[in-house]
Amino acid sequence: MVGMPTSTTVPVSVPMPQIPRRRRSPEEVAAAAPVEGPKRVLLAAPRGYCAGVDRAVIAVEKALEHYGAPVYVRKEIVHNRHVVSELEARGAVFVEETDEVPEGELVVFSAHGVSPAVVQSADDRNLRTIDATCPLVTKVHREAVRFAKAGNEILLIGHTGHEEVEGTYGEAPEATTIVNDPAEARTVQVKDPDKLIWLSQTTLSVDETMETVKILRERFPNLQDPPSDDICYATSNRQAAIKKIAPQADLVIVVGSANSSNSVRLVEVALEYGAKAGHRVDFANEVDESWFEGVATVGVTSGASVPDILVQDVLKLLADYGYADQEEIVTAEEDILFSLPKELRAKLKESGDSSARPGGRVKND
Ligand code: SF4
Questions:
Q1: Any known ligand binding at 162?
Q2: 45 and 55 within one domain
Q3: Where does [4Fe-4S] cluster bind (predicted)?
Q4: Which of 31, 42, 234, 306 could share a disulfide with 302, CB 3.0–4.6 Å?
């Protein structure tokens, strides 16, 4: 049986987008490719919401409650279509850049973090700001500043164009070079191989990052490691959980959005560790029933920005197709909570609002 969801959920007020097609019945799917042996689901735990996402979503919810709509949010607060739509329905306005926000209005910076240039641009427009950057991203920013100030060159392992990488790079652009993958590790040029440190995006594949570092170290033996892991606990734990399930799975379904780095990585890791097939979906109705043909064991997980209600929708669909035997595979317990952004804590205190635990979901949620 599936235990309690490990992550919290955002109330649903936005319906799942409808996909206009006729779904084949379980009998039709079974006739196309019969399944040998019992059908079952292995559900990864931990999965879904991490502490940084939880905090960022609460920050927007609480800003709407205490300042009223509209509350502007630079970029998607977290990379999940459902969460963004739900907050939009409540009055959040998502913009790409601060210059789209009217002067003097309130803007929330997303969990992925911003560069100092973005903070300056908000200041120039007299915007009021709430910084919902995940503290684990802020930690990487601080490392970048500290090591650059000490005269080091930084090799930032991460994906060019990802918001988090833009923010970290922006802390010390003159000292930082982005290394996207092992192939770039083989060709990147540095100024001084003896004053070199690597940092990374928080949501990468643990294995691929280690491979990239190995190549860099072969080329630059004096390369320094970061003081602690930059790939965060949530990314590592979700990858470890799916690694355990993947070798037994004929199919792995990852719930998460296409722009969610850690969700996309989960599909890659599942395939790498032996899943016969792997797919990412935003919503249950994107699951194609042809994926079930001949499939006995389905692994299910979700990215760190995914409310568990979306996973439960997938589990219901799986049960309809005969995968009612659902077992949770627990590889780690998570109890990390982060304090809400300081600007918001001050506002909540002023208003006498004690409904949000420090860093956790709203009570009774
Ligand atoms: S995935 Fe990691 S770094 Fe990103 S918001 Fe969650 S805890 Fe923070």
A1: yes
A2: no
A3: 50, 134, 232
A4: 306
CA–CA dist 281, 314 (Å, integer): 9
The CB of 50 under 6 Å from ligand 1? The reply is yes
Residue reference for tokens 């996309």: 264
For residue 121, CA distances in Å to 72, 83, 97, 140, 301 come to 15, 26, 9, 22, 38
Q: Which helix (H) or strand (E) holds 252?
A: strand 251-255
Pocket flag, ligand 1, residue 110 (CB < 6 Å): no
Q: Average pLDDT over the chain, rounded to whole? A: 92
Active site members? 164
CA of 231 to the centre of ligand 1 (A): 9
Q: Is residue 6 part of a domain?
A: no
Ligand 1 centroid – CA 7 distance (Å): 14
Sign of CA pseudo-dihedral 338, 42, 321, 253: positive
Cis before 46 (ω within 30): yes
In a domain, 163, yes or no: yes
- 63 & 41 share domain: no
What pLDDT is stored for residue 7 in this prediction? 32
Distance, CA of 287 to CA of 24 (rounded, Å): 12
Q: How confident is the model at residue 358 (pLDDT cuts 50, 70, 90)?
A: low
Rounded to the nearest angstrom, the distance between the alpha carbon of 203 and the centre of ligand 1 is 7
- Range of 323's domain? 29-50+233-330
- The answer to whether position 213 is within a domain reads yes
pLDDT for res 112? 97
Q: Is the CB of 134 under 6 A from ligand 1?
A: yes
